[in-house]
Amino acid sequence: MTTQYFPEVSDQIQYEGAESDNPLAFKYYDANRIVAGKPMRAHLKFAVAFWHTMKGTGSDPFGGGVYDRPWNKSGSDMDNARYTLDAAFEFFAKLTVPHWCFHDRDIAPEGANISESAANLQIMVDHAEALQQTTDCSLLWGTANLFSHPRYTHGAATNPDPLVMAYAAAQVRYAIDATIQLGGQGYTFWGGREGYCSLINTNMQQEREQMARFLYMAKDYARAQGFNGVLYIEPKPGEPMTHQYDYDAATVLGFLREFDLQDDFRLNIEANHCTLANHTFAHDLMLAASSGMLGSVDANAGAILGWDTDEYPSNLYECVWAVLIILKSGGFTSGGFNFDAKVRRGSFDTLDLFYGHISGMDTLAHALLIANKIIEDGEMESYLQQRYSGFQQGIGAKIMQGNTTLVELEQWAINQGEPKKTSGRQELRESLFNRYIVGGLVK
Ligand code: XUL
Ligand code: CO
């Protein structure tokens, strides 16, 4: 095992079980353990986010970078990009993570013009391809950074200047090529600066139509290049713009249907983006899954700060809900759990990157065992079936089949008399649910 950048971890992280007190071991993530007919590894499809893990500096709105990363010091921008990829693949191999995700500008520096940028990217994609062949880690999805460069200040696809949109088009073209070369299962569009600060200088409908045009061109290009993976839109309500066009799952579903893009795009739901929109993670997952539009997940968690803090998921309750919804919807196909998460500013050591990922992987693996037990027991499902059973027969079934009218319903209501008050039993359901988590129903 190559050890150059992470000498404190000499070998692959092993599964040692819940009783282990080794901080560098998995307590629940047992990659080959079969759960509901599939290895854990295939259910969870974990990915490391290159931007936070390798490129994160610990900066926040009140101060610049504080980490001292050995792969980011010694050379030119291109040298450092190569060392960073080397370090990344050492990390992926030691963590035994099956996938990674990147933005174009994470892995290769921007050049002086479009063709120099494309050439830089090509060099690093070739290097990443060679590194992928030496490990068990493959690409979950790729994306383009259309928000950091000053030219994108007023948006990329939704910029009032078509030249800026053309720069974004060039970038997405090469990012799609890179994703294809690296065998990516998906390609993600997070809206970045696609939104606005004030209507005083914004033509909202013009910008929304530009965004739809851009997505059309991107999907046509990807398909023409033979990309048969899934294209994702990642909703987020605010940050960096005051109003983001991809506010939440419901907004994105409406947008995709308005512009007839629903066949090619699926949703990439990020936990912290859901909570920023005043939803729970489970709410947006359920909405996407129920309409058959759930593609992938950015696994993280927010804090009470009110901005996108991108912490590692460690709340078991929320993770059980997430895995339950994913399992019930048939599980991931092209998608997976991408840790769009970063260590805190004060977690200075490279070792903290291992601790963050081990904690996130264990929390979701534990959640998988619990969610599977909830499904196997069937009690939760039968409660829901019973609660809505009135719609399975008689007039309820006629309503669902579209075979009745307001007038017929009125007549039926008159004959039945006042509906009986039936308890929703929320408190009882909560306590039953908790037995799976704290009550020892899961070993
Ligand atoms: C930003 C965010 C991005 C996307 C990829 O909040 O989540 O990192 O996941 O561009
Ligand atoms: Co994200």
What would you say this structure looks like, in words?
This protein folds into two domains: 14-377, Alpha-Beta Barrel (TIM Barrel), CATH 3.20.20; 380-438, no CATH class. Helix 5 packs parallel to helix 6, helix 6 packs parallel to helix 7 and helix 10 runs parallel beside helix 11 (316-328). The mean pLDDT is 97. The protein is of the alpha/beta class. It has helices spanning 40-44, 50-55, 77-95, 104-107, 114-134, 162-181, 204-224, 249-258, 271-276, 281-290, 316-328, 350-377, 379-387, 394-400, 406-416, 426-437; strands spanning 14-15, 25-26, 34-35, 38-39, 46-49, 99-103, 138-143, 186-190, 195-196, 230-234, 243-244, 265-270, 294-298, 337-339. It is globular, with a radius of gyration of 24 Å. Helix content is 46%, strand content 12%. It is built from 16 helices and 14 strands. The strands form four sheets. The protein has an eight-stranded parallel beta barrel with strand order 5-6-7-8-10-12-13-14, surrounded by four helices. The chain has a two-stranded parallel sheet with strand order 1-2.
Describe the structure in brief.
By secondary structure, the chain is of the alpha/beta class. It has 16 helices and 14 strands. Strand 3 (34-35) and strand 4 form a beta hairpin.
* Count of DSSP H/I helices: 16
Mean pLDDT: 97
Q: What class, by secondary structure content?
A: alpha/beta
Bound ions, cofactors and other small molecules, one mention each = D-xylulose, cobalt (II) ion
Low-confidence stretches: none
Give the overall silhouette: globular
Strand content: 5-15%
CATH superfamily of the largest domain: Divalent-metal-dependent TIM barrel enzymes
Using only C-alpha atoms, the radius of gyration works out to: 24 Å
Query: How many beta strands in the DSSP annotation?
Result: 14
What order do the helices and strands follow? Answer: EEEEHEHHEHHEHEEHEEHEHHEHEHHHHH
Broad CATH class of the largest domain: Alpha Beta
Question: What is the third-level CATH name, the topology of the largest domain?
Answer: TIM Barrel
Helix % is: 40-55%
* Biggest sheet character: 8 strands, parallel, barrel
Please indicate the count of domains. 2
| Termini Cα gap | 33 Å
**Which architecture name of the largest domain does CATH use?**
Alpha-Beta Barrel
